[in-house]
Design a protein that fits this description.
about 40% helix, globular, Rossmann fold, about 15% strand, 5 strands, alpha/beta
Length: about 140
């Protein structure tokens, strides 16, 4: 059962969510997509089994302000590194990038160093993710 969050949303954003590689478990990212929509954001969920290049191209085409990847299979460091490199190559450094799922806390510093703004493990409350998003979007509004 998913509770609806009746918060007053900050600035609405176009949020692109995806699963990359061979990780086919997408229940968590779908729950998050619904929570973002309920909070007033526009969500584009690309689905699973994608390449990082496809995600970046979709972010460009969709004018996404937030790019989020969901992981279960342990390849988060590799795919996030590739994502951040492509984002830099495409000049998308102003995008908010988040990652979540089964990500060990010992990997958080490496992901942060790469430029991942928000990292959420499986124990993160949906409300905490929404709060992070609202704070981050408010901090970049008008920038």
């Amino acid at each position: 059962m998913m509770a609806t969050d009746d918060r007053t949303a900050g600035p609405a954003a176009r949020i692109l969510l995806a699963k990359v590689g061979f990780d086919g478990h997408d229940r968590g990212v779908k729950v998050l997509a619904a929570a973002f929509r309920d909070a007033g954001h526009e969500v584009i969920y690309l689905g699973k089994y994608l390449t990082v290049a496809a995600v970046v191209q979709a972010a460009i085409q969709e004018s996404a302000e937030v790019i989020g990847l969901s992981f279960l299979g342990g390849a988060h460091l590799t795919y996030c590194r590739e994502l951040m490199e492509l984002i830099a190559e495409e000049g998308l450094d102003d995008r908010l990038v988040i990652a979540g799922g089964v990500i060990p806390r010992k990997d958080f510093p490496a992901l942060t160093e790469m430029g991942i703004a928000g990292i959420f493990d499986t124990n993160t409350r949906t409300g905490d993710i929404l709060d992070f998003l609202d704070r981050s979007l408010a901090g970049t509004a008008g920038a």
